[in-house]
Design brief:
The protein starts with a helix and ends in a 10-residue tail after the last helix. The protein contains eight helices and no strands. The chain is mainly α. The chain has helices at residues 3-23, 30-56, 60-81, 83-88, 90-109, 117-141, 150-175, 181-206. Helix 1 packs parallel to helix 8 and helix 6 packs antiparallel against helix 7 (150-175). The longest helix is centred in the first third of the chain and has 27 residues, at 30-56. The protein has one domain.
Length: 216
């Protein structure tokens, strides 16, 4: 499969997951609704990135904006799905801190004309940490069956995506300046990994249960 083919598949899968999420929106809990909003923002960011790529030959500014928005929406999702986060508004604080870190990175470390890889490493670490903590709380408190809990699967999907992405960008930081071919490999692999991720979200929305026990 060519890189353009994998990218087209990636966009198609995001659209599938977003449409399913919109049709199931009224059934979803508030946290899961944030994932639907995230999918919509992802589609919009990819559209704008394509326009800027054609017109200015550089679309990195889009990802300087999208990356903290992605972290914010994921943090709000965990704020709603993890009871201890919800009681202390932890997700909101994490999301707000993410915007501050992104601003500092864009102003002083990596300009908006280059990839914000430092911030991606930061966001990946934060999301992986929240996902692992969500697993711990689900296994500790879930009496309805872990496999039937959509929050288990959403956390698993986020952990899957960000673990691979985190490793990818870590290697990219070390090798991109000396191994130019690696950048092409990232451009080919990440859309496929992302497509698997968003297809997973679509399945979660498609089979989302009518009622879920909410821990207080």
């Amino acid at each position: 499969m060519t890189s353009s083919g994998s990218y087209a598949m990636y966009l198609g899968v995001i659209l599938f997951a977003f449409i399913v999420g919109v049709f199931r929106f009224s059934r979803l809990q508030n946290g899961a609704k944030m994932i639907v909003v995230l999918l919509g923002c992802t589609l919009l960011s990819e559209y704008v990135a394509d326009l800027l790529s054609v017109k200015y030959r550089n679309n990195m500014v889009v990802y300087h904006v999208y990356a903290p928005l992605h972290l914010f929406l994921v943090a709000v999702y965990f704020n709603q799905s993890i009871p201890s986060f919800r009681r202390r508004h932890v997700g909101w604080y994490i999301g707000a801190a993410g915007f501050i870190v992104a601003l500092i990175n864009s102003m002083f470390l990596q300009s908006t004309s280059e990839l914000n890889s430092y911030y991606l490493l930061f966001a990946g670490f934060v999301i992986i940490s929240m996902s692992l903590y969500a697993f711990y709380k689900i296994l500790e408190n879930d009496n309805t069956g872990t496999w039937n809990n959509p929050h288990f699967w959403i956390s698993f999907i986020l952990l899957f995506f960000w673990s691979i992405t985190y490793l990818n960008w870590s290697v990219y930081q070390m090798l991109s300046k000396s191994v130019l071919e690696y950048m092409a490999l990232v451009g080919f692999a990440l859309p496929i990994i992302s497509a698997i991720t968003y297809f997973g979200f679509g399945l979660v929305f498609l089979f989302y249960p009518k009622t879920i026990k909410v821990e207080r």
